[in-house]
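MODEL INPUT / OUTPUT PAIR
PAIR INDEX: 1
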Amino acid sequence: MFFQFFVPSNFVSGHRHKFWKPVLVAAGLLAVCTQASAQSEQPDQKTLTERFKAWTVTCVEAETRTCRMTQELVQQKTGQRLSALLVEERAGEGPVLTVLAPFGLAFSQGLTLAVDDVELPKAQFLTCLPSGCVVPVPLDEAALEKLRTGNRLTAVGVTATNDKQVRIEFSLQGSAAALARLKDLSAGKTTD
């Protein structure tokens, strides 16, 4: 399956330019990742998928290798995705966490992220796609260490219509091993 995002050149401007293309690609990859189990592998692409408790690390290798770790929160009764996290290693930028937040949250309020109740810098919404609203968060070494050693990541937003808080919790079980594997695979290593 092929996804292409069209973003007008005048829309990708200013200080957010470095985020647009990677975030849109990340959101597309997240959509592809969730459908990968239902589709057969393309003959010219190799896919590696590994589970680390709450996390899935996936690498797709075609012309280039793209690796990411993901976690989805899914409504049990319907199977509908409520929210998702995606971490990618980006050349020259380091790791970036992307939160795919549900619709209906106030953009102006951003998201407050915390690992075990220790707040990270406030994150701002970038855009919304059919699969949810994209919130990119560059990860410095301190934030990475919190993700490795923490138990849960919490994202708190405010609804756009009535200012009620929406709290989304993700498990960090397996995050240390998943982050290490993501780093190795992104660097070209395929075995332990």
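PAIR INDEX: 2
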Amino acid sequence: MVGADAATRAVLSRALVELGHVVLLDTAREPAAVAESHRLDLLVWVDTGIKVDHRQRSNCFELELEPAFTDGAKADYTVWKQDLRQRIESARRVVGDSGHQAARAEQVWLLAASTGGPEAVDRFLAAAIPAPGVALLYVQHLTSPHLSPLLRRLAAHASRWHVEIAITGNYLLEGTLSLVSPDHKLRIGRDGRVRVLSAPWPGPYRPSADQVAESLALAYRESAGMIVFSGMGEDGALGSEHIREHGGEIWVQHPDRCIASAMPEAVLAAGEVDYSGDVAALARRFNYRYGTPAPGPRTEVS
């Protein structure tokens, strides 16, 4: 929380705590390195002419309040606090590709696949129910001419999800599946913003699940997860280690249920996997994870 006088910040601080937030920073001056060191989720600042460093603001949601806003707390604190809640909710919502508006994702699952992947992912998306704060990022090995047909296919099979291509400037949004292009490397910022680089993907896999997983793990840490579906090769094995090291979960389509089992087998060989099952079981597990219908029996990983 930045700007204004101590009394104004005290009123805001009380309300933010009552709304379930933890106030890590309360200052009349520019947060500078403090914001970076605390890795803020929400930056509330009162416009009193203060210059807030955009480099610090870019990694969190921001809410700018007019100087007179807290006057409403004196008239009716309960109504005023509800207004503050609504402003925070609005600040957390951004517009994505094609005008799609949703909140920035708090958790992101990377779907990684190659040969046999589109069929498996189709079935997963048809059964997986979008959950608040959850986004999907899809890496499918393919060539450029097949990107648009795959996008149309996904849109047809994943009617519950908003489907788009991950492009520079877009955020990973709840209820959205972002398809990674095979043409250029991609990075995910700590604020969930996509940046497509000019360089092509190095190595044999385009796009590379390993590289996307590494970027996602650095950005979302324990809030990143990975599901590896049918595919040839070992892409995803190293990426799963990055996800795991940062506290995220790793699931795989059971090799016996894959058209091509090499990718899930490589991930299983790389280390601990949290769950393995057929596509239907993975979707049930996903739904159960976020409070929708209970999953079937767990498939133990040997």
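PAIR 2 NOTE: Residues 6-91 form one domain.
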